[in-house]
User: Fold this.
Amino acid sequence: MQQSTLVRLKEDLELKKPILVVGLPGVGLVGKLVVEHLVDELEAEKVMEIYSPHFPPQVLVNKDSTVRPVNNIIYHGKANGNDILFLVGDHQSTTSQGHYELCSLYLDIAEEFQVPRIYTLGGYPTGKLTSDETVLGVANDTKLIEEIKEYGVEFRESEPSGGIVGASGLLVAFSRMRGIDAACLMGMTPGYLMDPKSAQSLLKVLCKMLEIEVNMDSLEKKAEEMESILEKLKEKEEQQQQGYPEVKPTEEDLRYIG
Amino acid sequence: MQQSTLVRLKEDLELKKPILVVGLPGVGLVGKLVVEHLVDELEAEKVMEIYSPHFPPQVLVNKDSTVRPVNNIIYHGKANGNDILFLVGDHQSTTSQGHYELCSLYLDIAEEFQVPRIYTLGGYPTGKLTSDETVLGVANDTKLIEEIKEYGVEFRESEPSGGIVGASGLLVAFSRMRGIDAACLMGMTPGYLMDPKSAQSLLKVLCKMLEIEVNMDSLEKKAEEMESILEKLKEKEEQQQQGYPEVKPTEEDLRYIG
Amino acid sequence: MQQSTLVRLKEDLELKKPILVVGLPGVGLVGKLVVEHLVDELEAEKVMEIYSPHFPPQVLVNKDSTVRPVNNIIYHGKANGNDILFLVGDHQSTTSQGHYELCSLYLDIAEEFQVPRIYTLGGYPTGKLTSDETVLGVANDTKLIEEIKEYGVEFRESEPSGGIVGASGLLVAFSRMRGIDAACLMGMTPGYLMDPKSAQSLLKVLCKMLEIEVNMDSLEKKAEEMESILEKLKEKEEQQQQGYPEVKPTEEDLRYIG
Amino acid sequence: MQQSTLVRLKEDLELKKPILVVGLPGVGLVGKLVVEHLVDELEAEKVMEIYSPHFPPQVLVNKDSTVRPVNNIIYHGKANGNDILFLVGDHQSTTSQGHYELCSLYLDIAEEFQVPRIYTLGGYPTGKLTSDETVLGVANDTKLIEEIKEYGVEFRESEPSGGIVGASGLLVAFSRMRGIDAACLMGMTPGYLMDPKSAQSLLKVLCKMLEIEVNMDSLEKKAEEMESILEKLKEKEEQQQQGYPEVKPTEEDLRYIG
Assistant:
């Protein structure tokens, strides 16, 4: 069995106790939207690529017809003079075992850079269509929970009641054994489609915690685009109920706007 | 491929030939209920945690909003001056290969502590709704069978006829090669829901074998709660047959009362 | 990942270029029936046990309520002063990778004992209900094909047209790279149920090839039992078409008579 | 876990910077048809066989009733005095992890022979029934794209929009990290059946790029055979719509004509 591969794009990277912010694909793409937005706004620099046989055996095609394997990427950014590492990517592991292997690799990297704290970001599916600005949290330390509450993150007894599946949860739980504080912050989302609105709520809280300010225009624009797609979907649905012919949203309408 | 991880919470653990009692999740949660009850009543102490890529990639949320990875745990308790090890957990392996790997790890631990005997506890699905106080057994040694029969455990020719799938069976069969006596004791259960009643029958037999007495109040209470849930389910079913609207049991009603 | 385990029951086994006859479970259980019959009739002795994480995580219960893990077994028998090794078992690998791993292990054993020839036995599903005494063959050497034809084995151009899946095929193909002659002999069978009749046809051919004679009474008895089960099934089917209530064959009727 | 196995049929193979042309099974079998045709026409010689536990555990039967395991094969041919390596085979990996492992093995071989360029060939499913002579490309280098455009290969922005799954894509993307130029060339195909017509279009472009000429009669013949099968299928479909009995194409009609 081939192991996952870490490609270091900068061998001599020296950071001062950077926190690590993780936004891998998940419910509503909430975490991924937030971290990609921050990477853009802070002009963070790509420093590591992770390839894994636990990702799908797939390559993606760039605009210029070149290809790249699906991967996870670590970026380095700066805010208020502080170093921040960001972890984003195309996919999470497609296998259970791979989740454990990749989580272990990411925590090795965190230890290497003496990361004192990790925030993993995700969406919390409500199953309801109405939006909700709440940000729900869990953490691996009670003191950290008290600290984060101050920023408006809600902590509810034993919630999510079904636990958390995937990297966002594993990273928080296993970082305890490495002596790293960690919390998972979840934006409430219907959970059916990409949710830039929930991403905005989550980003606001995170910015307060990181003491930074970022322009949210592009997220706002994505939210409006999704709003308009949803409107069209609703109209079409109503038309169909009245006997109009079915009009599917075009691929253009729905594709991920990264 | 990452291996399973054993975390020792007590490095200097010295035990006198402890027996090992195993209650992992299975049919009717019978084995898990019994061992968790014993751990509580004997105030057994957590001594080892086992994490494995063969468990689901999931974390569970505690009441105080902290998280922990799903795992298996070994406790150390004392009864009549004798050491007892208990193995319980959230999950069994989700893969076939993982069952073999974890079973091998558990037997390594048993050998390390010179465990002379293992009891694995489980449920035996009858598929019938009526309860049955019988405890059925299999073992890895005919002398041991004769000894256990004395305590009211039934041994039926070639039963269970479909064999036993999972840790309870593998541990008994493979412990023979390590020179360890082992038996699997199974409480009869309808097999559809958590069965604290079957757990009580099994616990009574086990207590006789271990020459201990434990308070069974909390198991009794759980049995009553399940009884009341089943009553509600029956009523609702009858109402539905009479045209009443469907009323599902709430999650509260059915959740595992650990 | 745990490797498969070979347990040697006789450390000092010395054999004179034994042939290896393989009868693992497959279509109609034809190969398994033949080899188990030979093991019984030649009073072959158990010399090795193979355990593998690629088998189901299951134990079987003996008559006396002791248990054993599912496994594959190698027996040593003698016929006309010649050594013969037999490979039988409860299961083939449940994973693709396991098939390759176990096949490699079996060929290591064959090399260790300087096995000059391997016969793998199986069933060839015709999909028709009528029985057929033909024995079909494939081999890893054209000279061997000519030799075996003499015994009435049929070799048909490019047949089986879909190739052969599982140990019977892999062992024959990969033994070529170890310099071992090998053929796969297949009894024609409807393929729906255990087929002792097809096993008899195959056994007759094999006995000629091995220049041995064995009593076939027990196989004949099994064939009669299956005949009577099939009769009952047919009757019941006809009754049902005439509106009689359905009567399923009991588990007793259908269980494997090993 | 067993690793894939490379069998070298020629230990002392010395080649002058050969390009590598890959035609593994995929949509419409387009890539496989092209490379098998070139192997035949250039009388290329088998130099390596690859066996893998990630292929199905299956053997294929030759005309003479001998068997061989499913595999991938590397051939060596010559055109215009230049060395060419060809990679073809029965199957791609059946597991995600296996795709990564085999891709890595193939690139090791490419590095060993100082391969300067790789062309992977495949089909691009249009989902439409009409044929299309377009050859679509992606590559791992923009200069290479400019060069290949000259030969009539089309490069469309971000297409295929879903990326490429399997060896054809992985080899192109990962060869970048080994300093090897690589492109994936795809013949347009309805994608439902073997498509020798699309293979012809792709082969024409490839021959121009390799500056070779090959006889295409056998591909033409296969295209005609498929045409006639499709005609029959259409006729039968029309008959059925008119109430005629269903006549399935025989296996003979549809089998792969290698």
